[in-house]
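Service request form, structural biology core

Requester: graduate student, group of Dr. S.
Request type: structure prediction, single chain
Budget code: on file
Notes: please return the result as structure tokens.

Sequence provided:
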Amino acid sequence: LYAFCRISDDLVDGGGSRAQLDKWRRQALCSQVPGTLASGTTRVPGTWDERELVTLAWADARARYRIPVRYAEQLIQGVGRDLAGARYETFEDLAAYCYGVASTVGLMSMHIIGFEGPEAIPYAVKLGVALQLTNILRDVGEDWRMGRLYLPRTELAAFGLAEEDIAQGCTDDRWQRFLAFQIERTRHLYAEALPGVAMLHRDGRFAIAAAAELYRDILDDIEAHGGDVFQRRAYVSNWGKLRRLPGIWWSQQRGRWARRQRKKRSAPMNEE
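Core staff response, request fulfilled:
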């Protein structure tokens, strides 16, 4: 799954064309085992290239974990939007992009980890959007230098900002108010999404919770440096991660205990 997503993303970021992305989509989502010819003969060992090997492993993972192919199609459609140069008028437009490039990854991962049922899906969607919004806020300067601006134009305008301000790396009061609004909304999405971690299989909960919590901490680092996302890239240090992990692990243990207690209370009493 990671290799499939990595190749899809790198193909676009590396200057690939629409035709190349379409070719990768057909290759990566082909129902036929890669390397098998129409006659039924198999390619000679040692002649596989890297993408064919990824395609083979990815086809096996999709079948093994029953990953809906539609999610993979949506991811490729999502990364393909960057080929046209990223510009989004409204938050709704941006959220749809975030779903395509991030929520789909969470939904596919959820099938590998295991989850309770369809009620877990909205939580995964919101977490993916929150993670991608964090990426977007962290990488404003870097994205601008690549010719991309993901921040909703209507919301920039509402705070008196324009593309020229982004080009100049503006961090005045207008930017501070705009950024505070974006961060607050993103934190709200994290808060709404994290309860869904309890719906995952117990073996995968800590990993997902840790990824979400540590990514959320990037927002704190942005604030701690005055909202300057033009000259520096916000991050959480290795020491900061290590310091946070025990608390995240403990919160997951407490959440599991509370969940068991709720189940016990809701279970019907056995009649004598």
